[in-house]
Specification:
Elements (H helix, E strand, L loop, with lengths): L1 H5 L3 E6 L4 E4 L1 H6 L16 E2 L5 H9 L6 E8 L5 E11 L7 E8 L1 H52 L5 H25 L1
Helix pairs in contact: 4-5
Amino acid sequence: KRSIEAAGEAIVTFDASRRIDLANVAAARLFELPAGTLVGRPLDTLIDIGDADWDTALAPLTGDSPRQATLTASARRRNGESFAIEFTLGALDLVEQSWGGVAILRDLSPRIAAEQERELFERRIAESEKMLAIGRVVSGVAHELNNPLAVVLGQSEELVSGAIDDRTRTGLQLINEQAHRARHIVKDLLA
């Protein structure tokens, strides 16, 4: 009893009817209840194991060769707030009663929050890497386009200044304007 009460982990013991008969301060803190108020409460008023039933959950503890079982569930704090919980169950051989169990309880909220933060971070890293890859491709394409554009611009400006008819001059000026436009697009891509 003193070991359980001194433990930093939330620990409760319970009888065959699943009523808590001992709970340490860490368990009271976990459920945000005053110390000593957990004793006498049924486990299922604090822990919701979902579609499973308690008899099935406790079956590994009650057989001929009892073994531990670890379950995840939803638990409720005093204010009604629900939180994810993991608990390890073990059998207790009690002299004063036929059967009992012990549960070591862990709040999964910090672990879940850390996993969500890690997933968000990984998504951001993946997006950043994707943008970096796109940037490299665009940069490469832009540099490759600059060389032919320089030739088109240079040649079109040289040809426009020569002795040519008006129709050809208009066509060359259009080529030159569009080459300038393409060069601005390339600069925007690089930016």
